[in-house]
Design goal:
about 120 residues, alpha+beta, HIT family, subunit A, 5-stranded antiparallel beta sheet, 2 helices, about 20% strand, binds adenosine monophosphate, binds zinc ion
Length: about 120
């Protein structure tokens, strides 16, 4: 755990979240500022800043993040498909420096690109 990290604090239960799923490797919770009817985040439970910092030791958690995305998307109300977005670093416009996969969807297509609302 990184003591100053927002998402590590969510993993530790020090900051509340609307949790969807948890296992030994990953945690999923609703995004606090949803951009689509379905919008949740899947994160590794251990601190990993971004894919830029990932090593082979992180591969089980990285695989699990994608493996649970479909199951959770269907259960959350996006059975016809979804989009996974992972922003990395400054160029990728990553705001929270703990790796997270956005899973977005709903009953309508999410569109060709996803632009964050102001
Ligand atoms: P990114 O720009 O990829 O780093 O996205 C960070 C995401 O984290 C944004 O979509 C925020 O709405 C979301 N976020 C920030 N704080 C929280 C929080 N406390 N609980 C849930 N989602 C959050
Ligand atoms: Zn962290």
């Amino acid at each position: 755990m990184s003591s100053q990290c927002l998402f590590c604090k969510i993993v530790a239960g020090e900051i509340p979240s609307k949790k969807i799923y948890e296992d030994e490797l990953v945690l999923a919770f609703h995004d606090i500022n949803p951009q689509r009817p379905v919008h949740f985040l899947v994160i590794p439970k251990h601190h990993l800043t971004s894919l830029q910092h990932a090593s082979t030791a992180d591969e089980p958690a990285l695989g699990r993040m994608l493996a649970v995305a479909n199951k959770l998307a269907v259960e959350a109300g996006s059975p016809g498909g979804f989009r996974v977005i992972i922003n990395n670093g400054e160029i990728g416009c990553q705001e929270v420096p703990h790796l997270h996969a956005h899973v977005v969807g709903g009953e309508q297509p999410v569109g060709p690109m996803l632009k964050r609302q102001a």
